[in-house]
Write the structure tokens for this entry.
Amino acid sequence: MTAYVVQRLLLMLVTLFAIITLTFFLMHAVPGGPFTSEKMLQPEIQAALNAKYHLDDPLWLQYLTYLRGVLSLDLGPSFKYAGMSVNEIIAEGLPVTMKTGALALICVVALGVPLGIVAALNRNRWPDTLVMVIATIGVAVPSYVIATVALYIFALRLGWVPTFGLDDWRGYFLPVFALSGFWISFIARLARSSLLETLQQDYMMTAKAKGLKRGTVLFKHGLRNSLIPVVTVLGPVVANLLTGSFVIEQIFALPGIGRHFVLSITNRDYTAIMGITIFYAAVLMVMIFIVDMLYLVLDPRIKYRADPK
């Protein structure tokens, strides 16, 4: 187990290094520069800015300097926000993004899993049909369409919630609804199919034949094993929700990481683009690692070895 954990951590570091390298060189391969805009700068000003941010250094030297900064957890200065670093931009947007994402995650787990269980236990009956119709619509309709329709109905027509911003608790309703809609539907479908497959396994038939109570068979033997595919998906879902949705934050004008990422692309803020990309990749890898560890809790039969032979 220890060898497996060490192996995974080393693999994460190698992957992160590859992402940092690829992101850096891709951004520098884009035509133009961070100070390129419709309003052309004077050559003297352009040269001064390049010198200030060491953009006139050889590319290999810029890469080593940036890599050294990342290793010390310094993602560099922002090219568009004077006096701000990328670390400060992420720290500024992270509380809003994490709060919205955490609320959406609670909705996904609290609604998606129970709906899937209800559908599986009522297969081919009206509860199953109702859940599957709603889940199919939720999966098929993009989140930005859900956000736009919900904004029109609940904010503009009914006036129940504000159109943008987080001035009070009602401001979280529409962003959380739009963020969680797809994932609630996806998790409900996945939980249903997984539980139905588990219920057909031989050990479930044996448990029923022994005369165990239906609740014991379902929750102790069935649900625990059927949740493994759900937990597998929840890792990337958690990373996705807790690092922000670029489109949703832009629609509702939320000052989160996703909106900062969109603005950094618009403003050609190269260091912000690279920093937020690296941050997202790191969170995603950590969540996948945690999911792998949770497998041992859900299914003790799974054993990790450094050597698969």
Residues 303 and 309 are 13 Å apart (CA to CA). The mean pLDDT is 81.
